[in-house]
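ok so i was messing around last nite and threw this chain in just to see what happens. nothing serious, just curious
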Amino acid sequence: MASQPNIGGVWQATIDNMVVHDPGMASTLIVDGNQPFGVSARVMGSGVFWGWAEALGVSFTVEYYAERFGGPPEGVDLGTANVTMSPGGTYDDPNTTLTVPAGTVQPGVYRIMCMARWHTGITAFPDAAAELLIEVY
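result:
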């Protein structure tokens, strides 16, 4: 289930392609916790209501979280990116990018997750294939 509700031809939303942006590092899977870094995801949709939402310029948020393996803190709220819809059906970097301030996460290995929320109560989650693991040093 990518979104709730997920009704073919009416409203379908998916999240995939989660990415870490760290301009100072060769790898985007290993980040310096003492420097800011960015996270983004691709949010896509289709259906009649999706088209209406785009035409009306409806806004949604993409909320990012980090879950640490092997020690506290169990979860870190990284922050929220605000997105305004427009015709096109796909939203990704730079629209969904969140800059995570330096010092937000402590050294360790984290699973980065996100969810998209519309004010109507609709929520979309990434598919398991979109899971992103990073190491913070």
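not much to say yet. The domain at 3-136 is CATH 2.60.40.10 (Immunoglobulin-like).
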